[in-house]
Amino acid sequence: MLFRVCLSVLSHESDAEDAVQEVFYKYITKKPDLDDEEHTKAWLIHVATNQCRDILRRRKTRTFVGIDEVSESQSPELTVFENYGIDEENASVLRQLFSLPEKYKTILILHYLEDQSVGSISESQKISESAVKMRLMRGRDMLRGKLEGI
Amino acid sequence: MSINMFNKKITDAYRKIKAPASLKNKILDMEAGYNRHRHLPVFSRRSVFATAAGFLVFVCCLSIVIISVLQAPVTEVKGKDGVSLKKSTRVLEAETVEYEEEKQIRIFSTEITATTVKKPSFIAGRCIFFSLKTESSAALTVDSGNILIYDRERDAYVNVGQKTVISGGCELYWQLPEESADSTHTMNIRDGKENTSVIIEFKNETGTYTASYEKINLKEY
Q1: How many residue contacts between A and B have a Cβ separation below 8 Å?
Q2: Does A14 contact B at CB distance below 8 Å?
Q3: Distance between CA atoms of B86 and B189, rounded to whole angstroms?
Q4: Structure ipTM over 0.85, yes or no
Q5: For B76, what's the count of Cα atoms within 13 Å in the CB-facing half-sphere?
Q6: Which residues neighbour B88 within 8 Å (Cβ) at sequence distance 6 or greater?
Q7: Nearest to B216 by CA among B190, B187, B177, B178
Q8: pLDDT, tens digit, for every residue of A89-118?
Q9: CB of B21 less than 8 A from some CB of A
Q10: Among partner residues A87, A108, A113, which is closest to B11 by beta-carbon distance?
Q11: CB within 8 Å of B16: residues ≥ 6 apart
């Protein structure tokens, strides 16, 4: 699950692997005092999404791409789905989902594809439940707009 | 397209994405490596540095304590009037008494500090070091032995016999006579208001010295 979430946020397999490794490194070394499986899950998702945001920030500040490479590097997610045997029809929907702004797609993925409740997302993302619902609504609208444009 | 965009087909397609086995192995190795590392706390590099740093700090603190104890004056001024010794209600038993080549007394306690004689070529015999501070002049007498007061001009300890007057700060040795039997020696420091006595008792059987203080406020009499 963590790998899927990281991959959907980062759209890059190696970065997603690095993020997951970092999350488990923190889990192993910090040994957070968590009551049950739900809290553990929420903690892992929270750290994973923060880690992904860090990677995205670093990417923004450190990546310098040559003009000739732009067309190849703009959409790393294009090749991701082929590796997992996802057919083109479904891949196109997921591709549009993955191209949404990070704060909307994370909420949509956690809620609709990872079956996380609004309450759990609120806990793991450290935002209020109403904020989660608002992002879900806006994210759906944004995705609907993208899919209608296909 | 409706919200049906997240139908079962999409969910199933999404769930085909799985972490590679190599990633799982890396995480398992990482956990095993971390646990191995944790079980070697004594020899880990970080702990060696931490232990060394802690040891250095401990040695520094110990040095400061030892130096301050060895340098501490025998007596200290308390109160505004006249000379006074730090009052002690208990009798101070000397912890150790050592006889060195020059037969100097080394008495370790919080109140009377043993010391090696600063000018060993000049002072020989059994000496107890005192550092006294007075705000007014005070008469200093001993009933046995001699008083050796430090003279700044000569940079030496001068034998003033058994009676002298001190004023301000001064350092001195009380040179005790040779002991062959149980004996008691008394030093009196007296200004206009009070009399302080330092009593040194020697027990021949054990070869130990015991020091005690007595302070009498002269106004009460």
Answers
A1: 69
A2: no
A3: 13
A4: no
A5: 10
A6: B111, B212, B213
A7: B190
A8: 888 888 888 888 888 889 998 988 888 889
A9: no
A10: A113
A11: A84, A85, A86
